[in-house]
Structures are given as C-alpha cells and as structure tokens.
Amino acid sequence: MPINVPYSMPAREILENENIFLMDDKRAATQDIRPLNILILNLMPEKEKTETQLLRLLSNSPLQVNVQFLRTETYESKNASRSHLEQFYKTFSQIKDHRYDGMIITGAPIEHLPFEQVGYWNELTEIMDWSINHVTSVLHICWGAQAALYYHYGIGKYQLPQKLTGIFNHQLQNATVKLLRGIDDEFLAPHSRYTEVFEDEVLACEDLILLSSSKEAGPFIMMSKDEKHVMITGHIEYEALTLAEEYQRDITKGIACDIPKDYFPGNNPNNKPVNRWRSQAYLLFSNWLNYYVYQETPYQWK
C-alpha cells in the first residue's frame, strides 16, 4: 500500500529504509483514486515508536491510505515534544466535523486506574460516541480494547497478580470470520499488561464474537457482531525489541517484574529476541483494512 506520510515525520526515514512504499502529499494528489482516511488516536507515551509500528502495518495492501494522528486535549503527553505534536497531530475539536473510513485507538500504560479516574476519560468517551456515526470501523488495541469493552459493552478489567508480559500462543475460535482469513490456527503474539478481561464475560455478551484466545493470556481478538468494533488485548503491532525495552525500563525504575515469557532466546535477557509474529500482524491489519474498512465504507460520505 502506498501510505501517505508527511515528508518530515520521523517514522518516514525508518520505514523507507525498510523498503516500505511511502508517498507524500504531492505525489498522492496526482493519483485519481479515493484513498482511505484513517484516524489514529495515539495514547501511548512514546509517540514516535507507536507511529512507526502502526504505519508499518498499515502499509501492506494495494490501497492508498491517508493517516491523521489524534492527541488528547485534556491531557498533554510528557514524552513527546510539543513541536512534534503540533506538527503531526490534531485534537478532537479540529476533526470532529470530519468522517473517517477507519480509526485505531491505541493502548496506554494506565491500567492501574479505574476508567473513570483516567484524566482524559470523558474526552475518550466523547470520541468513542462520535466514532459510531463518523467512522466505518474502529480497531482498539490493549488498554484501548479494554476501554471499548467497558464503555460499549459493560465488560470490566481485572487486576492481575503480576504483569503479563511475553509471547503467548493463541488459538482461533472462529476461523470463518473475514478478519481471520489466512491467520494460522495457532499463532504467537506479544502481551504487556497488568489487567485482564474474563472470557466468560465476553462469551456472555450477545453483541460480541470471540475470535481468538490464549490459555495463558485470555481473550485476544474480539469483534462486535455489527463489525463496527475490533478489540485486540495484546500488542501484535510491537517490534522485536519492544518488550526488551519495556523490561529494561522497568528494571531501571526498580519495578519488580518477570522476564517476558518465551521471548529472549534461552530465557536470557542478554540474547537478542526475534520477531515471530510479524506475518500474523501484517495479515490482521490488512484484513481489517480490506474487509471492514475498504469494503464497507461509502465512496462518498454524506
């Protein structure tokens, strides 16, 4: 997919070095096609890393994609420069009169807080309400998935006795759903969180379909029956070294944590981990873009 990325965005150079097909506004304007417009609400602290991860996965399709990053107005990020946010991000008040073909709501390291105590919770719920009539399909990741399950379907999150971190095996629960086309019956994906949702509560919700789960990590991929919402409780967008960076960060901060499960070769943090979930991540994002965004969105929003 030729993905339209601002020329000065830091992710651009990284992705070009990986031979990802990128274009800028000038070239995009010469193509007489209707691009998909994707909105990304980036709640992760290290904005630039998340930008690169998501743009990489959105690139694997023949569709042209325009991406707009969104930040919160009620909370200012402490880990991203103001100039970066002002140059590449908009706020909800700036985009609320627009419509988007797809939207991604990322995770956030705030699981210890009840949802209502999150500083931008009211703003997030306003955005989630707005998305119902202004976005064709929304993909929610990790804490973003838990927030969607809670707000839209009344399914709560529960504290784990210790951080769930590592690479876990997952099984398909409903292989006939389009989102899972081409996905292996069993596949690996990263998780990094302190809370969980209960599978029995997901199964009891008549508006949800459980698509994939893990015996150790619990429900992984869920979708609303109206295909409006996709929830992923893990971080399939992570790069090979992301969990290692998080582990070293926790160790440096003096946080007691286990070595990420089944991640470092030989369970030795001195050994460089490898990416064993990349193909599933590309396919999952490509399926979402194709079947739930491109195939469903109107050519011209009214």
Automatic annotation (TrEMBL):
Keywords: Acyltransferase, Amino-acid biosynthesis, Cytoplasm, Methionine biosynthesis, Transferase. NCBIfam families: metA. Belongs to the MetA family. Pathway: Amino-acid biosynthesis; L-methionine biosynthesis via de novo pathway; O-acetyl-L-homoserine from L-homoserine: step 1/1. The record marks 192 as: Important for substrate specificity. This is Homoserine O-acetyltransferase. Its EC number is 2.3.1.31. One of its GO terms (biological process) is L-methionine biosynthetic process from homoserine via O-succinyl-L-homoserine and cystathionine. Substrate binds at residues 163, 192, 249. InterPro entries: Class_I_gatase-like, HST_MetA, MetA_family. Gene3D superfamilies: 3.40.50.880. The active site is at residues 142, 235, 237. The record marks 111 as: Important for acyl-CoA specificity. It comes from Aquibacillus halophilus. Transfers an acetyl group from acetyl-CoA to L-homoserine, forming acetyl-L-homoserine. It is found in: Cytoplasm. Its main location: cytoplasm. It catalyses: L-homoserine + acetyl-CoA = O-acetyl-L-homoserine + CoA. It comes from the Bacteria. One of its GO terms (molecular function) is homoserine O-acetyltransferase activity. GO terms for cellular component: cytoplasm.
